Amino acid sequence: MVDHILEIINNRAIPGLLIIDADYRLLYANREALEITFGNAGLPSVGHSESPPNIPDKILGLCDRLKTMEQTTEPARTNVLGCEMLDATNRGPCSLRVFYLANPAADEKPEHIMVLMERIVEKHEVDFAKAKEAYHLSKREVEILQCICQGLTNKEIAEQKFISEYTVKDHIKSIMKSMGVNSRNEILVALR
Q: Average of pLDDT values for 25-44?
């Protein structure tokens, strides 16, 4: 189970991060945020530039809403606002969340806002008929492959298919050999 969770984490895209001051000047942006916001062509520089890049209206609107919430509700409850969607310039939609950067123990008014931008990836459906043809898999191997894609352990596959764990291991070895891979993770990557 832990391996499956770690695999999901490792396959996630690096989020984009923007840090904006109270006057909506861009203080920091990582490469991912710049790519999401401005695309690959002509990434602007950030920091001491006299004309910082224009921040998309959707992000500015979220920052405005966060500030409005701060004035009308208890500050401790308004530390985060989200989630909105932004149509990234070249990579499809991403989610936006805005947070105040402040010390929660201090009573000082936050002066910076962090924008977290995460790409939204559609779930990829595996074409098992195509995989069967491409890798010359047997019907049973395709069944085992489907179980692997569901994240089942060898024991769970054995119970579901009414076979021994040793037989499951043999099927997986055969699948890996046919696909030219060395691990379950590589199987999943090859099927994308």
A: 75
